[in-house]
## 1
Amino acid sequence: MDKKRLLVGVVLFGSLWGLSEVVLGSYLRDSSLPAGAIMTGIFAVGLMMMTRVLYRQPGMQLGMGLVAGGLRLFNPFVGCFICSAIAIMAEGAFFELIWYRMSRDLNELHKPTMSISMGVISAYTLYVLGFIVTQVLTPLLSSAGFHFENLVMFLPQILSKGLFAALLGGITVPVTLLLKNVDVSHVADKIYYTASLSVSALCWVAVILNTFLMLSA
Amino acid sequence: MGKERLIPLVAMVLLLVGSFSSLYVYTVEGNISKADAISINGHSYTMDQIFSLTKQRTIITDDGNFSGAALDDLVEKTGVSCGSCHTYTIIGSDGYSKTVKWENMQHGVLTEGKKVVFLNLPKAFRVRNVISIEVK
């Protein structure tokens, strides 16, 4: 697949991820639901896995993390937004590392045991490492400073909360693999670029509008 | 060891880590007293004592106003003579803890719902269901 198509794919799926983090993530947090586990186990793993299946191109997920994290920076209303943005970018990088040894056609995942296991590994690792990145960066960028003992004391909670993300990931990856026979390279250029860029633009406009709405509220 | 054996094994280990951590957290939280008291610098105070001892403060954040006992006044009234000489670790019942400086305490409140909120720190520094404030 040509690089222009891949780049547009990165922007599209990264924007969808960023939008879901900003809008849905905030809604889930306000509703006292396990937002982090749901966002990682379903949206982060699901969208990154979707691009692995549809485009079969390693490296895209790192780019998606950069786009999603970039979009997160435009919504500076939930906690330390720079830290959240970096945590999202880090999730993209961790996903690349976890899936580094997998073949492009993902033929290792034909058995349900393998796809479920990869879902569990991906979601649990991304959740735990993403949480740790945020817990380290937020104090570092504040006037209080980072204290290692604070992280150690809360580590059992982080490892415990990751269990729900892992279970969700164990469902998300096998479901995403149902897209294995979809070939995006057969979509006509005009439709592909128009649809992808329009949806991406909508995501960015929605986040920026949300920011202005919150500012004027 | 091939991928077909290694990957399910790693997944099982992670699930076990998550399960045992949940068990540990559940046990520890279950053992924490549900009494209406907070340990401050090694001494136990009820919420009524805390609110009768200290002056009140309201802070305005981007997600609302929070009123409660002024944290700097609270530690002073409970026996800390040199506030700026120490750091303060706020610990919640779930083990969540945050260590802050005196300048942060001067802009922080302990609400009636036992939640600590700081004006000049990100939301990650909010500790719910506070059980202890350690002076270091």
## 2
Amino acid sequence: MSTLTLREAPERLDLAGVTPAAVAGLSEAEAARLVIGTGRRGLTLGDCFALHLDGSEELRIVGATDRLDRVGAGLAAGRIVVEGDVGQRLGAGMTGGIVTVSGSAGPFAGTAAKGGTIRIAGHAGESAGGALHGADCGLDGATLVIGGMAGERLGDRMRAGLIVAKGAGDHAGSRMIAGTIVAEAVGDHPGYGMRRGTLVAARHGALLPTFVETGRQDLVVLRLLAKSLEGVAPEAAALLRAPQRRYSGDLATLGKGELFTPVG
Amino acid sequence: MTAWIDGQAVERDAAVAAAASLLAGAHAPVIAGLCAEAAAVQAAFDLARAVGASLDPAAGAALYADLGALASGGAMTTTAAETRGRADLVLALGAAPWSSGLLAELAADAPGRGRAAGQPRALLALGGPGDGGIQHVSYPAGEAGLPAAIGLLRGLVAGRVAGPHPFADLAARLRAALYGVVMYDPAEIGALGAEMLNGLVKDLNEVTRCFALPLGDAHQGRAVAQVSAWSTGQGPRVGFGRGYPEHDPWRFDAARQAASGEIDAALWLASLPAPLPSWARTVPTVALLGAPKGDEARVVIGVGVPGEAFGAALWHPRRAALAWHAADPVPSGAPPAAAILADLRARISAASPAPQPERSASC
């Protein structure tokens, strides 16, 4: 197992492309010269981290802080294990592999990620699984599991994939194009501007006037979703087994999205 | 005196030298405010490029509420002058339009050209305080707030929400108008609300003509967006730390950077009035101010007020364009901020003459 141990982060560091496959072919001296700084100093991997590389498919980042941006960005295979927190855009654009974070993540975790799995044990900032400024979409096929609370606009403009969170702030599922979000609780106005997609929440804040109730549902598709969630997030799977009340929206836009919440 | 260091009056040259030293020695400087004439904003971008600084206008939050919506889905907008000439229906969203002064003018006349020429003009208000002196029809936004109300109106206009509703009449009026205009302040309705509003306007253009009229911010934000666009091809929150312009509205939010200790020096540019951020007293800061007191920052340099001390290109809200603002008949002679910024760049470049080659811009 290769290990990067953070010594210091005097500025935000950009770890995009620092993946197990990218460093597997490098000597420690070569990897140490990779530029990861975002300021005028041109800081390198070796300036900020103690390196131990053995060419394995697992890369461990130890002592991580919220100044580490784009950890796991572009990952296609293998595993990145982060001990600590990370900054913005965790796993951005990844297509495969697994990223786990023991602490919390900054904004835009999983943005434009097409494949693979991202697990955050702690909290996530705003727009987890959401789109960057002007970007076509947020999460785009990957799986994002957040053990704690997500900020506002969870899954904003996501196009495909699955997000599971313990809770989320206001406007969860805003501008959703498609995909699935499951959370125990979401804040006010979930699904603002959503076109398609599925939101499931045991509790929610105020609903928009452009969401209409379409009755109690006992859908096979929700049982199938529950089954698929068993291995990823068992507590979320349990949430889906209860009879659900369904709301359709956002009728301000296409209106083909849906919000399920357990009856009772 | 027009220059100060640590609150003590000094010669301007000494203050510029101190400012150059402060910025040259910084690892991560920020140039913020940018509430100034186009030439000074351009000089600020040039200085940022030379010292590897990031930029953030005082108008940042308000500006990005609109830029985000524009970047996501586009917009169909018009100007105040076109509204006055052509609109037979004006919908004022929220409170901000009522303090713009434009509604009183719109109430006083009627469209004189275009397809609605000769028609009366209807003024409608959604979620605003209204004005007893201006004849208008008012619709309350309701408890859910303005962004939710905009969404509901959009659903009604497109026929996706049906049945009796207080907004049904408003939706019918918008569809029936020959040239409708929706006035709004992006800062008031937020990025999601602005995007929904642009969607409403686009939906209406399926059946008639309708345009959005965003009210500009008070801090030259629209002008900064233009200077940034022609200088970097991107929005104004860019950073030159890596030698090329990186656009990142979250990372280069100056208040966020100050709070997280990511910046070690700052230059605050406000040749026109703008509220000084609290971080100007904690981060070592150079302030170029049109109305200085001297104790606002570590180094304070007084600069001329554009459109008074000298003629300058400033944002003209009514024309929605950069426009020349002539100097007072007897200008004060205070130096333009652009000259101070160019002086700073020259001093810093002379001290470290190896510029980084510019690579292609980030997306």
